Amino acid sequence: MSNTPIQNEVKTVENKTFKVPHTYVIIFFVVLFAWLLTILLPVGKFEKTEVKYMVNGKEKTKTVVQAGSFQYEKNEQGEVVKNPAKLWGTEDFGGYGMLNYVFEGMVRGDKWGAAVGIIAFILVIGGAFGIILRTGAVDSGILRMIKITNGKEVMILPILFVLFSLGGAVFGMGEETIPFALIIIPLVIAMGYDAIVGVLITYVASQIGFATSWMNPFSLAVAQGVSGIPVFSGAQFRILMWVVFTAAGLFYTLKYARKVKKNPETSIAPDATEYFKKNMKTDVEDVEFNLGHKLVLLVILLGIIWVVWGVIKKGYYIPEIASQFFAMGLIAGIIGVIFKLNNMTVNDIADSFQRGAADLVGAALVVGMAQGILIILGGTDPGTPTVLNTILNGLSNVVGKLGGAFAAWFMYLFQSVFNFFVVSGSGQAAITMPIMAPLSDLVGVSRQVAVLAFQLGDGLTNIIVPTSACLMGVLGVARVDWGRWAKWQIKMQLFFFALGTVFVLVAHFIGFN
């Protein structure tokens, strides 16, 4: 049968529709590209040294790159060599191979970060919240709050956004947003928004604060310390920058939130939103909110206070925070059994933990796969001959040939690109700032501006780079595919990059020092 005009029109629309590839597919092709780079580029390394600097009256020591120490790896004949990654091979059998990126990426690092620590963190947090959600207290509490606020719940968005931005600015909040997202995403969905709004007011807000911080001990302090300038200096300029960026990010968030609430079909993650709606109560008028529910919510509140106190006062990190949330989940489960919330039994505690962890296995796999990219490139150790070090040296040479404002801007661009490979703020500072700081002296850029370019480039791109274990964890919690997120977020990223450019250039022209 021949096609009718209507059939032809439908086919035309289908052909024009672009479906974003699955996150696993995108990462695979990035890994493939990294593998090709190891075939095309020679490897090199830097010498390392230790520097000492003061933070709040305490001496800190950091192993950093030695400026001007880069050298290509050479063979016995003095020829520059390449070290192409194999197609297949493990550490014990001839070196890492491209087809090993999933497993090797998942076991990279230790319990304090990289992949294996974040993966364990995600699974434990998922299990703990599986128990908490099984009690029904979160759903009941959310609906109760919406009923009490009676249409004024929109004020919750700016309050939470500013608080998370402060968290990023004051103590470098990042991984901590993963468990918070588990609470806040259902909240904003119940308010009529979508999962993206939950990601924006938690993780994105925290990284805006991280990028514009005036007192971040994990990023700014290290960058200024290894650059030889007073730690936490230039605070007034940075506080102003934090206010502007936070306001801009909040404006962007509220604009999207209003759009989605007015027309839910405009959401970029409708399937994620539907997932949460199917798994939560929706009847505001008929909500049960008894003593057991209140006690579970009290446990969550006290647990969050415990986490914040531990992070700020005791330096708690991934292992401690995971254990804190496990304790919260266990206590919530016991309360659920005692008060028979949703007819919970002891076995339901174990079953809910298993289900909660299983729900986040996909997010854990993505974290490991993304880390596999760095494995193929040879890792992030500047003292080991790798393609990544060659890329770093090449980009720094470009900066050295520039001058003035353009050099300052290119430093910002350089740090933004390099953050794809080294997402850790302190790690990137230790690798790049010993090179950028002396280079800034040569090209007429103050070291304070060089640090500013670092923190903006490092922090803002955390919102989009797939190598960020924290981003992938939050997106996994939100059930949002990275490809879909990146396609939407790129406009926001360009907006922030332009705003960052303004601040870098202004800082340069006013002699920020």
Automatic annotation (TrEMBL):
Keywords annotated in UniProt: Cell membrane, Membrane, Transmembrane, Transmembrane helix
Main location: membrane
Cellular location(s): Cell membrane
Its membrane topology: Multi-pass membrane protein
One GO location term (cellular component): plasma membrane
PANTHER family documented for this protein: BASIC AMINO ACID ANTIPORTER YFCC-RELATED
Entry-linked InterPro entries: C4_dicarb_anaerob_car-like (IPR018385), DASS-Related_Transporters (IPR051679)
Organism expressing this protein natively: Caloramator mitchellensis
Full protein name: Basic amino acid antiporter YfcC
Membrane-traversing stretches: 24-44, 112-133, 154-174, 180-205, 217-233, 239-257, 295-312, 318-339, 360-378, 398-423, 463-482, 494-512
Pfam families: DcuC
